[in-house]
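Chapter review. Work through the record for TusA-related sulfurtransferase before attempting the end-of-chapter questions.
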Amino acid sequence: MVVFILRYTTDTLLSHTTVLHSKVNIMAEYEPTATLDVRGQNCPMPVVKTKQRIDELDAGVILEVLATDPGSMSDIAGWADTTAGVELVDQEEGDDIFTHYVRKTEQ
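Structure tokens for TusA-related sulfurtransferase:
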């Protein structure tokens, strides 16, 4: 029989608290300043429309993209990973809607 003993130190507990505190701060850091609604559109349109809208925005702006295409989760992530000047801040998967938060990082 193998017995595992978990030992919590003050440092471990403080680190955990810091991580939780940090998550709250991160979520507050990306308030979207523009919204793009591509619900009902399928690949490749969510990415095409996202790129067009990002090109119109100033650096630092966070674009919230609302989509119904499940493929948009990987499509927008892949586009952001391979595109200079944009950063995928977060993605949320709801029941029938997929929300993406994309920051324009440079002009």
